[in-house]
Amino acid sequence: MSIVLYDLVKRYGEQTVVDHVTLEVADGELFVLLGPSGSGKSTILRLIAGLTPVTAGRVFLHGRDVTDLPPQQRGCGFVFQNYALFRHMTVAENIEFGLVVRKVPPPERAKRRDELLELVGLAGLGRRYPGQLSGGQQQRVAVARALAFAPSVLLLDEPFGALDVKIRSQLRQSLKDIQRRLGVTTILVTHDQEEAFELADRIGIIDRGRLLEVGTPDQLYHRPQHEFVATFLGNANLLAGTCEPDRVRLGPLSLPYPGAMSQMDAEGRAEVLFRPEDLVLAPERNGLNGPALGAGVVEQVTFLGPLRHVRVRLDPLPGTWPLPLRYGEEGIPLTVALLSGANGTEEVRVGQTVWVGIRRFHVLPRIALRLLIGTDGSSEAEHALYLAARLGQDTGGSATVLMVGEGRAEEALRSHAGETLKTAVADLHLKARRGELGAEILREVAQGEYDLVILGGQADPRRPWAGSAAAERLIRESPIPVLVAKTPRPAIRRVLLCLAGGEPGKLDVMFTARLARRTGAMVTLLHVHQDGEPADTPEDARPDPWLTRQLERGRLTLLGQGVRAEAKIRLGAVVDEILAEAAEGDYDLIVVGGHIPSHLPAVLERDVAAEVVAQADRPVLVVRGKLP
Amino acid sequence: MMAAEPRTSPSPLPTSPPIPPASGARRRIGRVPFSVVVIRVLALGYLALLLVIPLAAVVSDGLRAGLGVFWSNITRPVAWHAITLTLWTAAVMAAINAVMGTLTAYVLVRYEFRGKALVNALVDLPLAIPTLVTGVMLVILYGPQAAVGSWLKAQWGLEIIFAPPGIILALLFVSFPFVVRALQPVLLELDMHQEEMAYTLGASPWLTFRRVLLPAIAPAIASGTLLSFARALGEFGAIIVVAGNFPMRSQTAAVYVLGEIESENPIGASAMSTFLLALAFGLMVAVDWLQRRREARHA
Predict the structure, then answer these.
(1) Are A219 and A196 in contact (CB under 8 A)?
(2) B297 to A74: CB separation less than 8 angstroms, yes or no
């Protein structure tokens, strides 16, 4: 193995940029690290070259542990995106730099330099200065310079990023030829999937510092194991399904799929991937040879040269929905690829009804909710453990209990938390920390991958934040939803989703859909109308049609994802009405969100979420923050 | 140009009204408007009044009695000693400044440390402190009665005050910002990748500095050094306090001019002034040339 990375970690302060990356690159392989910008892929290259010190983990080059060596002793050929050519040196001097440093005698140097100029197709340009070359030529000088001293590995950081499209594809081909000819083990970093497909022997997909999946381009495209990989590489139609022995179920449809259950969780939750070319269109049901996904209306036809992408919207299918969840989406949008000029495809027109047939599909596991439960051993924290056990049972996800306490208490806490959750959650982790609960939870949220924080809250409305300073802090600062567990409820059957801030938040609706679908809860969307004359009955209220439409959109989003939902409008003071509705309907969970921070100073701004959390006598879920 | 764009490219908002051209677009090419003429005349007139006329006055006064008299005024032993003293102390100062200013600029640009902003602000302080005060500070520190001064005298026999070392110290203090400030923007602009590239190619930090960094920043060092040298030629306040006014010993050219005026020899004063002016002018031309050359290479 030319390059071995073992459990590599890089942190800048609280931020983890490279998160436990382990990777082996074979001799002579051209390996491509592919990921969105900011995913940490360039940092990995810098760690290999020794330009950035590692936080933890080891780097091996040709079996030698180089983790503690300076870049000078690692022998990595490096090409930066901006090439970093020495502008005061000629092309020849640039290429010879690595040889001069190694005190190679001049005649040998000249020979090597001419070979490389020839190799990269710049013979005769050795006496020019970098400023006199085109972008593509500069890039080739950078490659030649990195190769001149026969490096042990070649590392390329977005080498085509600064070039225009036409030159890019030429240079890709030439880089691949050079790499093959020299057989030098290479890692190339890019965010361009087309580039990765064209160059790579194998691809590694990086997202937020983690190496999600490694495989050949074909494997990753056709048989990905992660939703992110499926959607990042090419176009993906993903539908939620469930696996049964040797079959996969998509709502009313049941498709044969040998070995379907093998990699799924006990519930068999799966995502079914249809690439655009895996689907076919026909005007009639009997025009399809294989199984049909359903009939839908053509919304858009996009001409892409050899292909045409047809956007078809299927009517909602009970028991399945498109992934990743999208707000306000009705029915199931699908992208179908047609070969341009193939028989009969010219007739596809916008507005036409067509049948969508399935040629091929792939099944990948669906990630369930990942819970983080914070506890400090207080009686309030008990509620959190109890609620987490309920949710864990319903959602079948993983749970991590973060215990913040001191010494002996920690031990007791550990066994107690274990007992409470053991039977409910299959994938249970226990972690212990010292410090302040709120701060430790935020740190854990920043480092790990969680969907929901659960922690205890004071049920007594007269002392809202007593013993739960962490809750007060988290509902303001947490980037992921926070569930404050108050008086325990036997199950989550009724959810009150409050759209207090006017415009319904998309995030809260989507997150509620996720939660309610898994717990089988019924959702009531509530809008509290503040202004206007107080009306005797809610029926008298006439909010503007825009609001009604927004509420309806929220309801349809929930319905589209298989959640029973109704909409309600109340008149009066926001917090009072929410609490009144919660008590009248005896809801098990209140969801507040959609609070958009205004330009007002924090003191002047009314934080409805905080007020509801403070005054409610039942669990409250606060959803705010960024979309993932 | 801004106004012409919406017409050539399809507007993103087809319903929006056409954007009226900016008022500047009405200006016709080929005829210089009156306002521009006024601005130019103002600027050039101001320059002439403030700079060119006094300069011409001094030069013509210095050369009034002919080149021979000018030359004999310059080459008088006292004058000539003042000139050489000025030049060599300024040269020593410039050499030290080139090295230490480069180091300071590098540290200020490339490293993060507590109090960096404060240090950065301190660099400019010598420009704001009256140079007389600078002289007083040095006398307090290095004077024969002061602790450091007497120790140096006893230990090394080194005299600072009323001697060339004092002049050099004073010059170092007053011209410290020049190299640092000339270099900082260049270093900031210089890509860290260049140095990292050299490291991956096997070059040691010293070799990287010498072969990669230094060639890139040399013109800036040179222009900063020349500026500080030029500034040193005319330094008066700090030197008169630190070195006094002893002909043939610690009298620099600027102090000499004062002496000539006090002893009512305006021709001598003008001659020396003209000489200093010519030197400063030559240096400025050199600095300008260096900067042009750097810009030309960047283009």
Answers:
(1) no
(2) no
A197 and A76 fall within a common domain: yes
What's the CA gap between A601 and A522, in Å, rounded? 37
Nearest to B202 among A80, A87, A149 (CB): A149
Question: By residue range, what is the domain housing residue A321?
Answer: 235-365
Write the CA distances from A232 to A89, A191, A194, A351, B92, integer angstroms. Answer: 41, 10, 11, 29, 63
Q: What is the reported pLDDT for A625?
A: 54
CB contact under 8 A, A49 and B202: no
Domain boundary pick from A221, A247, A267 = A221
Q: How far is A415 from chain B (nearest CA, A)?
A: 46
Mean pLDDT of A525-552: 65
Contact check, Cβ <8 Å, A87/B201: no
**Beta pairing class for A202-207 and A30-34:** parallel
Nearest CA of chain B to the CA of A553: how many Å? 27
* Token pair recorded at residue A68: 């503690």
CA of A162 vs chain B CAs: smallest distance (Å): 15
Q: Report the CATH number of the B66-298 domain.
A: 1.10.3720.10
Residues A413 and A548 in one domain: no
Sign of CA dihedral B34, B38, B39, B44: positive
Dump pLDDT digits (tens) for A2-26.
899 999 999 888 788 998 899 999 9
A47 to chain B: closest CA residue: B200
Cβ pair A51:B199 closer than 8 A: yes
How far apart (Å, rounded) are the C-alpha atoms in residues A283 and A321?
A: 24
Contact A84 B215 (CB under 8 A): no
| H/E run at residue B286 | helix B266-298
pLDDT at A248 exceeding the cut of 80? yes
Distances (CA, A) of B185 to A340, B120, B215, B220: 56, 13, 16, 9
**Buried residues in A476-495 as b, exposed as e (16+ CB within 10 A):** eebebbbbbbbebbeebebb
| Strand, helix or coil for residue A466 | coil
- Report residue A162 as tokens: 């600064």
Q: Which residues pair with A4 in a beta bridge?
A: A24, A60
What is the mean pLDDT, run by run of 10 residues, along chain B of 299 residues? 42 51 53 86 91 88 84 89 93 95 92 89 90 90 81 81 89 92 90 90 92 89 91 90 86 90 87 90 87 68
Cα A62 to Cα A150: distance, rounded to the nearest angstrom: 14
Measured in whole angstroms, the distance separating CA A410 from the mean position of its chain's CA atoms is 33
Calpha distance A20→A6 (Å, rounded): 8
* Chain B residues in contact with A104 (beta carbon < 8 A): none
ipTM over 0.85 threshold: no
Which of A93-102, A267-276, A375-384, B164-173 has the least mean pLDDT?
A375-384
Cα(B131)–Cα(B235) distance, integer angstroms: 8
Using a CB–CB cut-off of 8 Å, the residues of A that contact B are 49-51, 70-72, 74-78, 80, 82, 84, 86-89, 97-98, 101-102, 131, 145-146, 149
Candidate from A88, A101, A131 with C-beta closest to B201: A101
Domain assignment present for A547? yes
pLDDT higher than 60, residue A388: yes
The count of other CB atoms within 10 Å of the CB of residue B70 is 20
A628: in domain: no
Residue B28: predicted pLDDT: 53
Task: Please tell me which of the candidates B191, B201, B297 has its beta carbon nearest to residue A98.
Answer: B201
Q: Are A7 and A166 in contact (CB under 8 A)?
A: no
Are A359 and A377 contained in the same domain?
Answer: no
Report CB contact under 8 Å: B216, A82: no
Cβ contact A97–B211 (<8 Å): yes
Q: How far is B33 from chain A (nearest CA, A)?
A: 39
